[in-house]
Write a structure and sequence with these properties.
- This protein folds into 2 domains: 3-52 and 148-208, Ribulose 1,5 Bisphosphate Carboxylase/Oxygenase, CATH 3.30.190.20; 57-144, Rossmann fold (3-Layer(aba) Sandwich).
- The protein contains 8 helices and 10 strands.
- It has helices at 3-12, 63-71, 80-87, 90-99, 110-116, 118-123, 137-144, 169-186; strands at residues 22-29, 42-46, 57-60, 76-78, 102-106, 129-131, 147-151, 157-164, 194-201, 207-208.
- Strand 9 (194-201) and strand 10 form a beta hairpin.
- Helix 1 crosses helix 8 and helix 3 runs parallel beside helix 5.
- The longest helix is centred in the C-terminal third of the chain and has 18 residues, at 169-186.
- The radius of gyration is 18 Å and the shape is globular.
Amino acid sequence: MKIEEAVIKAVAEAPTRNFNESVDLAINLHNIDLSIPGNRVDAEVILPHGLGKPAKIAVFAAGDTAIRAKSAGADRVLSADEINALATDKRSARKLAEEYRFFIAETRFMPAIGKSLGPILGKRGKMPTPLPPTQDITSQVTRLRNVAKVRSRDSLAFHMSIGNRKMETKDLAENIEAVISKLEQTLKDGRHNLKSVYVKTTMGPAIRVI
């Protein structure tokens, strides 16, 4: 079945809900040992049409970088004092980790973040992208707006969102193609490690793509 046809079928067969469901991929791998960390998938893919709404981004920064981060549209900018406060407030730290999809941090703050927030952000695959002093924060924020994480951990079956039900079929199909392409580039044996890929809405039936 062509990818666009699978998307049409997945949306058409899903019951109408009173909220805008996400459209997800269920990815199944085989012929690969994920107990070996180097074989695991932990990659970023730029979705050509995003997820239907911008990803929420938080930045750990101070001074001019903090000002530029706000101008670039970062949803939240956290100072060094806030990093220290979060170290003793695990509830707020977990809430922060759940609310924001991506984090960026000036390199000088990375050791403190690793010590205070590493266990919480690392477990969720959300450790900050380091920002060297010479790098432009604006380009980083813009890039991450349309990025999705492809992360298997040690499981042969995993899910990820590639958009929402209100998006155009063609746009969803092109997002799926981008994910499959990234998997082929990332997996040890490329396409041979992909057992199957299904597309589905949050509460709808799963339709096989490959």
